[in-house]
Amino acid sequence: MPAPAPRRALVAGSVGNLIEWYEFGVYGYFATVIAANFFTPSGGSEAEGLVKTYASFGLAFFFRPLGATLFGRAGDRIGRRPTLILVLLLMTGATTLIGLLPTYATVGAAAPWLLTLVRVVQGLSAGGEFGGAVSLMTEFAPPGRRGLYGAWQSFTVALGLLAGAGAAAVLATVLDERALHDWGWRLPFLLTLPLGLAALWLRLRLEETPSFRAAPAVAPAEGKADRKEVARAVVLGAGRVMGWAAAGYTFLVVMPSYLQSTLDASFRQALVATVVANAGFALSILPAGLLSDRIGRRPVMLTGAALVAVLAFPLLDLVQDPHGSAVVRGAAVFVAGAAVGLMAGPGPAMLAEMFPTRVRCTGLGLAYALSNAVFSGCAGLIITEAVQRTGDADIPAYYVTVTCAVSLLALLSLRSDHHRGALRETTGTPRDPGTPRTPKETSCG
Predict the structure, then answer these.
(1) pTM given for the model
(2) Where are the alpha helices (DSSP H) in 141-219?
(3) Nearest to residue 165, comparing CAs of 243, 255, 101, 55?
(4) What is the full DSSP assignment across 383-435?
(5) Is residue 289 classed exposed, middle or buried when 0-12, 13-18 and 19+ CB atoms within 10 A define those classes?
(6) Labelling 123: which of 27, 230, 369, 416 has CA 20 to 30 A away?
């Protein structure tokens, strides 16, 4: 194996993820603008338009499990490399198209349907991206570095969200409100095209992973016998990352619209708060992944989930305090983002270690997609609708506390030696910690 191969896989695997989350961040940050252009006809209420925008946002997430299944099976059968190239092409094309779509004022009721259709394509491609990218990075990772390599997937989530927030902040600064609503919001989506072409060049130069090349084919009878075991691992994996999914989207994506619609913050103020939260998220991810290589995934992820559950209400109170200083509010959202990073850093490697090579793309991708479909994609819709109906501004804290509590319970089942040894090759029965691993002594979980 040439020395540059793992580094090339790290860059090529994570760059597509950066583009994906850049777009999802931009969509979330411009939710109020998109609502006005696509979902709010003359006479419609702003709150109604925002709910419909988040419904479209959430719908794309519900196509992620389908994408994880379709593209995951392709990645497990024909290889990680060709599958990642295909999902990148779909993702880049769909995101660029959003910047070209006609609005409600131009084509009427067709506008929200066109936007929703493009979001569906994005959801399918994003579902395939995670499983393929994490499999690629962890299978190329040197011994004892899977946590760090997998953490780059989460780190590029932070970079993508920060890039999206930065693009939105720049446009909000240099354009007046009318120009931003008329055409300025399109520019961040159109920027995806050159980014996608650069990512495509990197992925075309990739090699197939050594684990995939060496993995034995799964016999039909063996595949049927292991299907229930893999399904159990998918459900368990989804539970383990539930808190990460819910808290991540609540603090890092939904925050701008929540601050504007609930606390009457300006668009610029909301973006600044989100950038600070994402900075805390980004700064904790790689150290968390590296630490999990040394002491295990379990203690690091448990700490992150516990911190979010315990601190959610106090931190939200600081953000809501009308007399609080900007420094205190900034510190609150920074800590919230950093706590989520403790779950997101070890999370990809933890999922990769739960599944054998021939179902890894499908298994980890489906676990992540299911959790994100329910607890990320619906975060904006649930929070916005619940706050509107109840008038309770603490709804985001309730949401992340409950989901992180469930993740705490699921993470308690994580074995302490999960981070040691090679990735699994086949399914079978669990081994005891410290027992040498053989091909038939490996299992999901």
Answers:
(1) 0.83
(2) 146-174, 177-179, 186-190, 192-204, 210-214
(3) 255
(4) HHHHHHHH--TTHHHHHHHHHHHHHHHHHTTS-TTTTSSPPP-S------TTS
(5) buried
(6) 230
